[in-house]
Amino acid sequence: MIPLGARLAVERNVSEVILASGIVLPLPDQRYSFSGTVIAIGRAPVDAQVGDEILYSSRCDAFELEDGRLVDIVEANSIIAHL
């Protein structure tokens, strides 16, 4: 997957709690921003490189890959910080 323009493909770091019964509960602190690892960059210059850990706005498009990974397509101006 190669994003177009000034966009990045980011594998989201999912925060969750697994109960003893096996039930998975996502943590509620991810309503406004996410963190993740950059896995691909479009052709326009951006302030991140593949492998960087970033914090980004929750305004993005989310996709699930065939292997079950959750990937967000993030615009370069949605990057909040490098971690």
Write the layout of secondary structure elements.
Layout (H helix, E strand, L loop, with lengths): L6 E6 L3 E3 L5 E3 L6 E9 L11 E5 L3 E4 L5 E6 L3 E4 L1
Antiparallel strand pairs: 1-4, 1-7, 2-3, 4-5, 5-8, 6-7
In short:
By secondary structure, the protein is mostly beta strands.
Explain what you see:
This protein has 83 residues and is an all-beta fold. The chain has one domain (7-82): GroES chaperonin (10 Kd Chaperonin, Protein Cpn10, Chain O, Roll), CATH 2.30.33.40. Helix content is 0%, strand content 48%. It has strands at residues 7-12, 16-18, 24-26, 33-41, 53-57, 61-64, 70-75, 79-82. The strands form two sheets. It has a six-stranded antiparallel β-sheet with strand order 6-7-1-4-5-8, with no helix packed on it. β6 and β7 (70-75) form a beta hairpin. It is elongated. It starts with 6 loop residues before the first strand and ends with a strand. The model has no long low-confidence stretch (mean pLDDT 85).
